[in-house]
Amino acid sequence: MKRSLFNLFALLAVLSLALAACGGAAPAPTAAPAATTAATEAPAAPTEAPAVAVEKTVTVGFTASQTGSQEVSSKRQVNGFNLWMNQVNEAGGLTLSDGTIVKFAAQSYDDESNKERVQELYTRLITEDKADFLISPYSSGLTAAAAVIAEQNGKLMITTGAADDDTYKQGYTGVFQLYTPGSLYLTSTVDMIKTLDPAAKIAIVNESDKFSTAVVGGLKPYAVAQGFEVVLEEAYASDTADFGPIINKIKDSGATVVLGGGHYPDGSTFARQLYERKIGIQFIGILVAPPDSKFSELGDAALGVTGPSQWEGKATHTEAEAKGLGIEWFGPSGADFAAAFEAAYGDKPTYHAAGGYTAGLLLQKAILNADSVDSEAVKAALDAMNIFTFYGGIKFDTSAEAHGLQIGHSMVVIQWQKNDAGELVREVVWPADVATKSPIFPITAP
Amino acid sequence: MQQLNLLLASLPDGILLGFVYGVAAMGLTLIWGVMNVINLSHGPIISLGMFGAYIVFIKMGINPYLGLLIIAPLGLLLGVLIYVVAVHRVINAPHLSSLLATFSVNMIIIGLGTAAFTTSPYNVDFNMGSVTLGSTTLLGTRLIAALAAIIATGSLYLFLYRTRPGKYIRAVANNRAAAELMGIPSSRILALSFGLGTMLAAISGALIATFFPFSILSGGGYELKSFVIGVLGGLGNPIGALVGGLALGALEAIVPAFMETSWVPVIEFGLFILALLVRPNGLFGAKE
After folding, report:
1. Chain A contact present for B224, CB below 8 A
2. Residues A434, A91: Cα–Cα separation, whole Å
3. Nearest residue of A to residue B4 by CA position?
């Protein structure tokens, strides 16, 4: 009887946790909603100029992963967005041509890095909190879940921290992507490897989630087209802790370059174990984790590891660059953004933070261009958007096949190197014209 | 041939890891074997063991293996405390009551842990070098963790079979009413058993922290593995738990040699269900 009960319970526990794992998100313990400011229902868009300036508060809804597997990057993204909102509100809001002053209020909840929570909470943001515009959660998987709800309810959503291409190929018309699409994430890294070692043998090892699968979906054909031999393709579950068997496979494959990873927890674990096992890999390119400042906590295991980055303070885009390209410049300089972020949060901004800030900036520009907070007018403004900010170019695909897909933004490659004082620092190593340092190649095991 | 090479390279690693899985599972099966309580706070206690290693090494500068001498008694005390506060009152109630009680403890620990440490990953950046033997590389941290796991198992075995409190535990596990009639203080023995179970969980957590990053949520995965090992190795049998752990560790090394790593949980839990159907007493028999 005792055994049967234990066995039954164990079976139920395994099945339930396996189902949770299929959901692709880690469970998280707290569910406390954390509204950042009081929400105010936005009145209808102005139809004629009022005699006296009217102030409108536009509610921007989003969920944040305050707990769970996406916590690190999500918090940075939300900090970036909040910085933008505070700056706009403190500057007196946006003024439309009819004299209406638009201010912003954020309504957010902890999604626990969980897709089911995301869908519940975005429904709540739309139906109960009456959010006027939506910002995506962090990560492609959570955003895919949120985008369905936004589209079903006719709400406009700007996505940041969500690179997977698929979300923008579902026929949606109100979802706009800020990040460079996942399929292009590692292509610039391949370009760099071609200059370093055209005969490199590549092992592609990635998390088996939506985003990482999209990245390697674009990576492999690109690498092959560039003449590289892909000697290993291996996917791993999101909660993988022991990369030993995979590293043995890499060693056995004869690979000289490892590309892949997924998100912060698995990416940092993978990098650490690659370092510990010293299998003679000459180049490591990992998604998401290396551009995070927390990555330096790995110590020597971080040295030489590269990663694609949506934005880097050391190679920020400039007004002069925009002018050279003949594209309209909008927003603060990268230096001003970085200084404001550091003053507000005591930490240097990563691309996740820059993405959060720029999502707000994009909404601001769309409202100004539309001269309205009406959702349809703002959507039309986003469709027509072609601007340059400190974060880079922003332009959207407006075709029916991939509406909202980002087509104006490009990425850089960073590498952890040691400065003169022996401290680990993030350097931009590609493209060559914006690089702050030459890449360390091959990386050598100390 | 390639598969064989991979197998030879990965198997020793998997077996070393299996020792640590075995210690985690021993904690769970000991509590179940003695008092019929499914301890749902097992996972978070493993996580607390991980943070224990982090604090003693990063904050206090103590070698994490020496830190086990601090973490183990704290784990024991925590277990006794959990038993007295949450489990003792429901020990004779239907199983659902103890299940809910330990689940509540689980939520409390995770909530407090999240408030204190967030759910960001932490690292105990402790390197013991590595030994390369042919195609396999053995990490020093895993070798020492396996050694510590063997010592923990041996100590538990000696405690249960060679000491008076250990014999009391076995007596209570066999027949609590008869043990009480013989003058054995069953409540104190149950508290001690729960303490030993949590101590083993904390030790396994501290050992895991020396080679894998972790967060307060990380223990959940090892709790799940402990259930699988409990079924494979037989309940209430420390040696069975250790052997079950080794079997699971070996399986995690063998599967990737023949197919994609993402198949590991499928095979692992498929065999688990098969074991439930074919050998419900566990592959190595269970305590009766």
Report:
1. yes
2. 33
3. A252
